[in-house]
Amino acid sequence: MTLKSAMPSRQNLSRQIIDSCLAMNAHGINQGSAGNISVRFEDGFLITPSGMAYDNLRPEHIVFVNLDGTSPGALNPSSEWRMHRDIYANRADAGTVLHAHSIFATALSCLRIGMPAFHYMIAVAGGADIRCADYALFGTQALSDNMMVALHERRACLLGTHGMICFHDNLDKALWLGVEVETLAKQYWHARQAGEPVILDDQQMAEVLQQFRDYGKQPSQAQ
Questions:
Q1: 5 pLDDT band (50/70/90 cuts)?
Q2: Digit-coded pLDDT (tens) for 151-205
Q3: What distance, in Å, lies between the first and last C-alpha atoms of the chain?
Q4: Is the residue at 218 inside a domain?
Q5: 219 in a domain, yes or no?
Q6: Distance CA 66, CA 107 (A)
Q7: For the domain that residue 93 is a member of, what is the CATH number?
Q8: Is 182 a known active-site residue?
Q9: Count of domains for the chain
Q10: Residue among 132, 124, 106, 116 at smallest CA distance from 30
Q11: Cα–Cα distance between 7 and 160 in angstroms, integer?
């Protein structure tokens, strides 16, 4: 069996995107038709359409976008397609991108506050903090440019006065990471209400990141 034939079909990937969108709402990290999900596919990516409620989505509604930004279909892709395109174009490790307006991550983003190493699980995003990108109008290249700065050596960031975005290998991992980022945002929010959280230092986080190299891997997967 060739690698190409082993890859999921466009229809199957589209169904999986819809299932992940519904799961995102069920987990409480998104509401209504806000947010968007995409999957790398062939020479571009598949992404949710603009402004359509997830409950009404069918596989034929999922839009293909080339990496040059063109889309040959009848439906418009999510207005945030530029963020997805730029992640795929610049991060070879990105298989799926998830963007959400989760409550606590969005609240922090409205305060333009990133998350320092108040808890070791910050390392799920790839480093010792989760940054908040500068604000720019939604759907613009400026927003995507700001996001890419905040995503340097990270898998997730907050978007100033907007929400959060993350990427991972596949849909399941991206959903997991999105839930983790929102959970951390909720924990950080509550910790700040009681006082000033104690921040792990660089050495402590370096140890955590070393431990995370095999985090969640079974013996057959560990390197």
A1: very low
A2: 999 999 999 999 999 999 999 999 999 999 999 999 999 999 999 999 999 999 9
A3: 26
A4: no
A5: no
A6: 33
A7: 3.40.225.10
A8: no
A9: 1
A10: 106
A11: 36
